[in-house]
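Session log. Operator J.P. requested a structure for one protein chain; no other inputs attached. Running the standard single-chain path with token output.
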Amino acid sequence: SNHRGSIRLLFRYQRYFEPGSVGLMQRKLRTFLDSVGSSDSSEPSVIYFNGGLHLLHLFPSYRFRGLWNIYKNVELHAKRFVLNAKSLAPDAILVYMNSHDICEDKYLNEWATAVRDLKRNPMSVAKPCVQWLKKEYDVRPKFATEACLAGTFTSDGVRNMNARIEKAIANAVKSHSLDKVGCVDAFAITQGRCEDTIDGRHYQKRVPQEINSLAMILRQHEQIEK
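Structure written below.
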């Protein structure tokens, strides 16, 4: 809005860097603005995005759930999202929030058992994962083993996934001469904060710190623009 002191926020849940999500959000925002009689632009000024956590696995309790093709190509999906966002909203500031750290001590029942087994003998968790990937997707054993060990729904697995996505975004920015994509380091903000989470991955008490980090990035961008 052009009125000082007012803000409109539109939230739209889209999974895993879906390329069409930015255009869909713009259409939803335009519909809302029309409904309140506003002629404001439907182009967002900031696109704040996240993804990757639920691409991970913790066999046998939590499989790749049909998301294997996205997991193995997450770099491509992240790159396409950034390029599509800049194409549809060229003036928007892009900020990526990486995924939270995981407090494995909060896991219960079969999840706790899987983490315990993983720490004692990583291959005890990787083996059924490799067999499943071979059966469902005909993945070569070597590649499957690497993915099953690196892509666990654990602190290490999130760290690995964050690194892949952040590298892909940086490469997209460099190769297409885009403005820098900001990063709210939610992993660092939540790392070792087991007292602030109930389920091991959502940290409500850390949200203000994440918002403050986002605000700092936007302030820095504003100063550069000036």
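Operator note: Strands lie at 46-49, 93-97, 182-184.
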